[in-house]
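Q: For a teaching session next week I want to show students how multiple molecules come together into a single three-dimensional assembly. I've collected the sequence lines for a complex. Could you give me the predicted structure tokens for the whole thing so I can convert them for display?
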Amino acid sequence: MRTLLKYTIGCFALAFFLACNKEGDWLDRQSQTVLANEQVMTDPKLIVGLLANYYDRLPGDASLTNRWQQHTSYDDAVWSGGGNSGDEERNSIVNYATNRWGLWDYVLIRDINLALENMEIYGTNLTDATRKQFNAEFRFLRAFHYFEMLKRHGGVPIVTTQLILGEDKNLTELQKPRNKEAEVYDFIASECDAIKDFIGNTGSNTRATKYAVLALKSRAMLYAASIAKYNALLTPTIVLPGGEVGIPAARANEYYQKSLDASKEIIAGPFALYKGNSNPGENFYEALTKKQGNTEIILAQDFLQTKGRVHGFSYDNIARGVREDNLGSSAIAPSLNLVESFDYLDGSPGILKTTSGGDFIYYDKPEDIFANKDGRLYGTVVYPGTTFKGSPVGLQAGLMVWNTTTNKYDIIEDNFGVLWGGTKYPGGDNRLITGLSGPQRTGLDVSNTGFNLRKSIDPAPGSSNRGRQSDMWWVRFRLGEIYLNAAEAAFELGQSADALKYVNTLRERAGFAPNSLTSLTIGKLIQERRNELAFEDHRLWDLIRTRTATTVWNGQSTNPNANLRALYGYQVVRPGDPAKHNKYVYVEMVAPRFKTPRFFQIQNYYSLIPQNVRDANPLIRNVPNPFH
Amino acid sequence: MKNCLPQRRTWSFISGFKIGHLKKLKVFLLILFSFVSSVLFAQTTITGRVASGDTALAGVTVQVKGTTTATQTNSEGRFSINGPSTATLVFTSIGYASQEVPVNNRTSIDVQLASSNTQLTDVVVVGYGTQRRATVTGSISNIKSTDITRTAATTTSGALVGKIQGITARMADGRPGNGTAIQIRNMGNPLYVIDGVPADAGQFNQIGIGDIEDISILKDASAAIYGLRAANGVILVTTKKGRQGKAQITVDGYKGYQDFTRFLKPPDAATYLRGLAWSNQNRGIANPTSINPTEIAKWEAGSEPGYQSVDYYDYIMGNGDIPQSYITAAASGGGNNSRYYFSVGNTSQDALIEDYYFKRTNIQANLETGLAKGLKIGTQLSARDERRHQTGVPGLDDYFNPMLSVFSMWPTETPYANNNPKYINNTHSVNINPATYPEVVTGYSDDIWRAMKGIFFAQYELPFGLSIKGTAQYNYTTNDVDEFEYTYDAYTYDAVNDKYNVTGGNQNPWRRKINRRIENRFGSVVANYNKKIGDHTIGAIAGYERYDEKNEWTEARFLPQNNTVRLVYFADQNIYNNTFDESARAGYIGRLNYNYKQKYIVEALGRYDGSYLYAKDNRWGLFPGVSVGWRISEEDFMSGSIGSIFSELKLRASYGETGSELGFPNNNTDGPTPFGYLQGYNYANRNAVFNGVLTTGVIPRGLPVTELTWVTNISKNIGVDFGVLNNKLTGTFDVFERKREGLPAQQNDLLLPIEVGYTYPNQNLESDAIRGVEGVLTFSNTAKAGFTYSLSINGTLARTKILERYNPRFSNSYDEWRNSQVDRWANPNFGYHVVGRFQSQSEIDKYPINNDGQGNRTQLPGDLIFEDANNDGIINGLDQRVLGYAQGANPYASFGFNTQFGYKGITLAIDLAGANMQTYYREFEAQIPFQNNGAGVAYLISDAWRRTDPFDANSAWIPGEFPAVRKDVPTHVNYANRNDFWMTNVKYVRLRNLQLAYNIPKKWMDKIHVTGLRIYAQGSNLFSIDNMEEFDLDPEVSSTNGLQYPQQRTILFGFNLNL
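A: Of course. Below is the structure for the complete assembly, covering every listed component.
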């Protein structure tokens, strides 16, 4: 009996381990997140999920989420954020690397082509209309992405099907040469034409519509046209014999016309410039930041705070004095260069007036120096004496205390909120020395230029807080740009009256009198674009396509455009001179953290194609650009 | 002896069951001894106790020398033997050096035996069983509990450092509760197996140190029986079990005090301001009004109000004497049929930073009992509660900000506005103001691990040498993280109106709860056959086991509306994340042993192993191993005079294969991610808001990985074990190689155009090898008059060599010299060689080589001069050369020296540990003065090249150790050109433990009714001889900025009580 018990227990143990599961079952585990082709392509909701992924992967040189620090790599802003390393290098770029803007992302192209092809194979239950709509939307994303690669490298290989490695592993079948730069622009135009009537999404400004397609075409054709025209005017011109780089000047007008046609179709469409606020400055700020009922936005990358789809752009860039967190702020500090590029409302150039006759100009209020400027300055930049979200931002570098012994001003700068008095400053009258937003010469996360960013900074409470963050959207296309595209194309085509009409419409919204401009130059148009489209990822590309980057950013320490400047404001303490006492003065300087003049060289007009690309495909011309 | 019974009555706090049990034992022993005494009263009876350290040794053979009279010690270590008063007693026991003691007319003799973990007569735990050390043919190190517990480390890995050959170690981050990175022969993270069940590093490190009986380390082919994950060696832990005999009750504990071994120090205010003045002078910038000689003098004097420099190191880290304590109580014993071991222990360690601590409670219960003849069942139950408490400092790692603050704060600013502790000062960056770090201000962060593990086994022994054992394990681990960071205000003092104005603070509340649940299941059935037929001994093991793990993680984040309420509410929630991972493995185990007269030994072992990671056709693999041994000392020809030298001499050789699943937590080389063999799409990759609705993204997967399988590791080992002078001197030496074949790599001649948009999956293409030697030499002896001592030295040298790279291609010979890895030692550390310092401006002006790439216009006296290795007149990348070894890795060479002395109950143990061949590079705070607009490190300012007068640009230069300071110029070639001025090839020897212990004599202990009491004082990391001292950095720190919690210098006072 006992023996039986023992054997029974022994056998039970054996059986337990050996019998209950087959090996295959034990090692076959189920993934929680992998979906099969059939599952995705038969379910329109999952196809929209695929679109969500692709939209979110669309590149840009700088957006609110994607490499936003790039906004401080050119001439509109100085890096004022944290770190002695990392982004601080943006203040001392000796010259732009030849591969700085390189983008050879064919993974997204492959993923789009895969979706297009798999939808045909597996999406058998989709209606024809649904399939056509998705097909158009995938192709819009592909065209958008090709344009992004094109504006960096010139002609790239146009791949519209999946390149699948065969059983024989024949690599030459997979090697595609670069298309001509013009061919890729033509491809974008023809894709836009082919899809615009099928893409649907009517009324949306977060998924592409017919007008987003036209906006892409308007922008791309303008680029093609200006490259055709201005590359030929450059000495030396940048061309490759195969046309991979460079567009014949003869085609300029054709492209300008295509751009103008697309722009006109949009302007005739359901959009309208935002005019919800009677104050031109506030109105311009709202034009980008107001999401509800905004008639100007054609396509935007949206965010949604309640669902955790947020970003830290406001956290990183809100003015120090009004931030809602104890880390991060003021990283993008607009330069005096940008501030002065905004004209006075009377049409005169926007140079700020700081001195007169060997002495400072004494302003009653800090903001007086900015009086009568283009309203877009207010909408873009937080400057001394203004508020943000209803709170004063507190931009003041320090005090200028008249020293009766030396007959000069002593400059006092200190930490935020420190008062001029007590034991440290005996004889002080307890006034504020340095404002809560700086500027400070060496401080981190505080403006180094005397200015802060307003554009795209979220007005919602708590949005500059790390925990909550912001759901401000990133505008990819808006009507304001289309007006400027139309103006430029019309101007280049000799239709000056139309061109002036478009530009003056925008200027009028910014507070200028009607018909404030009566003549145009391409330089003036680029300046208008700088004013209207600052921090919207246009400045770099505008200078590249008009081939002016090499002159504007020529690396000379004597060139005020290549050196980013700051404006430090002080309150004057000079009781002996009531006309000056308690007034405000400004000192202009190169931003203290800015070290090296911007230097854009001719080889930067096209970015170097990465070595691994050239290694893997001998058809990619070894010299991608004659200046490399 | 008659007093024994009343003595035991004092045990009132022990449960009734145990008292009853003890009583019975005591009565039994009393009767036994009375009987022995009465019968043999007429003869000389010698009694005594044999112990090793504080542990009583049972089963020690006590023999009257030259006679056959012998006895064994009982479970208390006591013996009684008859013999002439002039006799000599010989004490022998497995695992201890034998000892001869003259009786010299004494009737009571207490003996201490020295243990030795290299004794060849020992029994060693090997995979799936034990073997006599004599017949072990693999390379296996072994360490016993007495050596493990001699430590101030709170984790198991820390306790092993320096004590055992084949282990390399580095404790880069010494924060409370952190483990030490240990590797076997530098092969990578090993596989841990606790009581026969695979475990992770956390389970290994956080086991109760007192509960460990034994740790074995399988380093060569002997690991092949663990198959697929055993490539980096296996660490086998066996927990304590009860021994037959009466209850043993032990209470062990210590209390200790810690301080940092070393840490960088910030400057005082005068040094800081003078440094700023020098920086402005060196950069040609005007000083602001606040920096002038008068101001500096005021700070120097420190007497005027508002001019008191703040030492933020002292403020944050205090002045040491931070407590650490450990207490554990265990009861063990057993009868004929059942054995038990119970323990409960608590480890507690505070950090130098206020309100930071680590605490752990462990419970272990190991039971086994016979159900019927041959049938035994048992269990090992364990549980732990492990918690780390920190304050809710902003930033994910709560330790980093306090360390950063030491160097980021300015000594000229105070933590509190107007030094009023009610008002946090709004310093230049308030989030690093340490006044915000106390828990009441900033909140808390709790990280709690709770684990319960049950191992259940049934073993049936058949009469003919076969036994079958079935084991099942269930392990449930949870990790709860509970973080609450408060909001607070910061103030600026208005001196005129005596008011405090809110000018900053933290408005960012942070509330996070993380829950991780890990469920491990393990089952095995193993048959074991052992038979001795004449001179032939055979053994065989066959088995099957499988293992899976489910790991679910959820994270919820909230934005609480106040600092008070700890419960979380849906209304405040802003993030919820959830992941689930699953893994499964299975394997068939086999091993055959054969030996002839214990002289010629052959072992073959193998495992057929499968992993869920690979595509179906590549899942299973066979990992065989074979080893042979020849005990030369058993040969007849060794019986002569040569043979008399060697009490033991064995040659061993082994060859074995194991696998590694590269690309998984144990490794960092690319490999398959789980389900890499599947096509299709991944759900939840990015998302987008379409028309106000959030849409979760779906992304196509890359090409399915169907060809890649595990990396095969081929281990070869040749070793020798020997014992001479009657095993007083023993040693083991091994030469080894572990070759890895099939390392994942891209097939680079299948050059897919980038335009295809996908990459070809990795294949098993490349190979490397770790080669090295290791050894241990131990001498233990008992000199005259009871003086025992042992000396042991061990060392390991193990280094990786790249063997094959798939189709390496180079554009020119320089490229090949610089970048080729084939047939070279891995991880060379490149940089510029510094050949000198500029002594003067005129030297710079005349210097023919372009040292900074900018015509030397950025150079100042004291700047580093780089070697122009290729003589082209300019310093650039082509001038770099190899300067050091791998950075942040475990040292290639590790060694330890362990020694113990014992005399009349006093023992002194010294453990030294050292290492060589590792490289540290200083960066950021440890390199750049005024890093991040902070005050930085004092010596970078005070010992820099500088002018005599910081306010006179024409004053003379004074040489210093460091380059002249330039604030905000981190890109200067002094720093940006990686060079050997900032690089150190670290060598160190440190005193890990110095322990002085005293066994309180029994006669005193009897009075307080205690069986044994040992007390000790111990110092850990008391000193270190190394080349990092001049930089105030611990030699094991790896973080290049030096902002890492270093090891502690600890003084402990402890006891081991035997009730």
